[in-house]
């Protein structure tokens, strides 16, 4: 594997990070323990398998100068066809890649770590009384930036009947889908479906067909218009703000995590009765849980409608390049101030339908697309300021992380639950991630440890809200 410049959004995540706000995402998987030594065996297994996963050997290295002339010329030469060839051979890189390499000033590259040692990344901890408590402490620790930015923490349970593994991946190394692929490569699938054939990509020439130039110009103008549209939408979204002080805080550098599990069959019953999608229902449950939690802690929910950022993946799972974040998003007001649970669901569904009609390439939620228009040095210099601006953009992250439809094991131990954990942006006190696994919906909550000491109460409110919606739809 060779060095590759970080994609613009990856570079943004790399530069936004600070000591108080690490930019890693994670998943807390809970396994059944087949023996008292199951956790230790799992740690050994993870370390031995990590050595064979190429993506886990990749480090991120800052580059303060463009590639040398010799490297640039070699990269360009590799794009040219050989004698008798009409198209470049498959392994050769396209011309655009060579140009990107030569313009990587102030950026960063993803490259193999020659000193990679899995034992630097896989750690076995003492028995934990509560997996989420231990995970919260570990989520507050930034990843080592001089090594491949990922870790696997094995947490034995005090009862001896279970253990957990906290997988941490820097957002510049992997988005949710890529992190899933890397973590799953270390485990054993159950009930694996037969693979579908991958579509073959059409051959690509060095330069576009002349007939395509008008379309390319239209696309460029469309990109400029889209950027202006996104900027204007962000400015409008900051007006008439009504969030809650509970969702904003000065950073403490500490983290808490919690989780809630609801039955997927209940979600489908709600969806069939009240309308909408599974995603609409899970978001409405978040809005209702926030209302319960704010009222119970005395903050009040009247007039509160926080802006939720709903990330949208632009990756095509079976055809896209496996590396590089490709994200956009929707921005919507969570109807926390609505008293009626079914009316909250209707408002969520209406807002999501409106976002889908506009599409993920426009509107205030699509700020991530602007990363493509910023040069590497701009990301390096503006990253810290951009991180601080997140509080002005949205109030809470609510993201869905895809998981496989089949079950997973590790060394014969069944993965029973998995809680996705999202990065916490500067100025925010809460982030919520949702995954569906083996017939259950798992909510993973990450909070600033000082700002939200009662995170378990919010997790309980999620289960209560789902039960309330189910009861209303069953009658």
General form = globular
Spatial sequence of strands, sheet with the most strands: 5-6-7-2-14-13-8
The CATH topology of the largest domain is Chloramphenicol Acetyltransferase
Number of strands: 16
Estimate percent helicity.
25-40%
Task: Name the CATH class of the largest domain.
Answer: Alpha Beta
**Whole-number total of structural domains:** 2
CATH architecture of the largest domain: 2-Layer Sandwich
Largest sheet entry: 7 strands, mixed
Question: N-to-C terminal Cα separation, in Å?
Answer: 58 Å
Task: Work out the strand percent.
Answer: 15-25%
Using only C-alpha atoms, the radius of gyration works out to 23 Å
Low-confidence stretches: 89-104, 201-213, 216-224, 317-322, 364-371
Mean pLDDT over the full residue set = 80
Helix and strand succession? EHEHEHHEEHEEHEHEHHEEHHHEEEEEH
Q: What is the CATH homology-level superfamily of the largest domain?
A: Nonribosomal peptide synthetase, condensation domain
Strand-pairing-aware structural class: alpha+beta
Helix tally equals 13
């Amino acid at each position: 594997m060779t060095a590759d410049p970080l994609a613009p959004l990856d570079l943004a995540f790399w530069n936004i990070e600070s000591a108080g706000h690490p930019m890693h995402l994670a998943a807390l998987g809970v396994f059944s323990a087949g023996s008292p030594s199951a956790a230790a065996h799992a740690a050994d297994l993870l370390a031995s398998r990590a050595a064979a996963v190429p993506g886990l050997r990749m480090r991120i290295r800052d580059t303060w100068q463009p590639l040398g002339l010799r490297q640039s010329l070699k990269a360009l030469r590799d794009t040219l066809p050989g004698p008798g060839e009409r198209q470049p051979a498959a392994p050769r890189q396209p011309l655009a890649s060579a140009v990107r390499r030569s313009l990587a000033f102030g950026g960063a590259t993803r490259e193999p770590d020659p000193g990679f040692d899995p034992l630097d990344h896989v750690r076995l901890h003492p028995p934990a009384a509560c997996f989420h408590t231990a995970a919260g402490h570990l989520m507050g620790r930034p990843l080592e930036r001089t090594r491949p930015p990922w870790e696997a923490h094995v947490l034995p349970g005090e009862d001896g009947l279970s253990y957990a593994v906290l997988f941490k991946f820097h957002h510049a190394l992997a988005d949710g889908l890529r992190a899933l692929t890397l973590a799953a490569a270390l485990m054993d699938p159950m009930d694996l479906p037969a693979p579908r054939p991958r579509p073959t990509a059409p051959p690509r020439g060095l330069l576009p067909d002349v007939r395509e130039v008008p379309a390319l110009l239209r696309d460029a103008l469309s990109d400029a218009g889209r950027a202006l549209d996104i900027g204007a939408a962000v400015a409008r979204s900051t007006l008439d703000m009504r969030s809650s002080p509970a969702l904003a805080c000065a950073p403490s550098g500490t983290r808490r995590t919690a989780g809630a599990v609801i039955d997927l069959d209940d979600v489908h019953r709600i969806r069939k009765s009240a309308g909408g999608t599974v995603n609409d229902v899970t978001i409405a449950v978040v809005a209702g849980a926030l209302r319960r939690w704010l009222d119970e802690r005395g903050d009040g929910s009247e007039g509160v409608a926080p802006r939720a950022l709903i990330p949208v993946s632009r990756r095509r799972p079976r055809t896209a390049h496996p590396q590089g974040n490709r994200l956009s998003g929707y921005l919507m007001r969570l109807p926390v101030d609505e008293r009626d649970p079914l009316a909250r669901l209707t408002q969520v569904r209406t807002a999501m339908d409106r976002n889908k009609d506009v599409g993920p390439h426009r509107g205030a939620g699509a700020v991530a697309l602007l990363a493509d228009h910023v040069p590497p040095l701009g990301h390096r210099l503006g990253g810290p300021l951009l991180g601080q601006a997140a509080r002005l953009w949205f109030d809470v992250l609510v993201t869905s992380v895809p998981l496989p439809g089949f079950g997973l094991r590790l060394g014969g131990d069944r993965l029973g639950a998995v809680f996705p954990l999202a990065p916490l942006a500067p100025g925010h006190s809460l982030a919520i991630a949702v995954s569906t696994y083996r017939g259950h919906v798992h909510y993973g909550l990450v909070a600033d440890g000082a700002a939200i000491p009662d995170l378990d109460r919010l997790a309980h409110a999620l289960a209560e809200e789902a039960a309330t919606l189910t009861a209303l739809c069953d009658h």
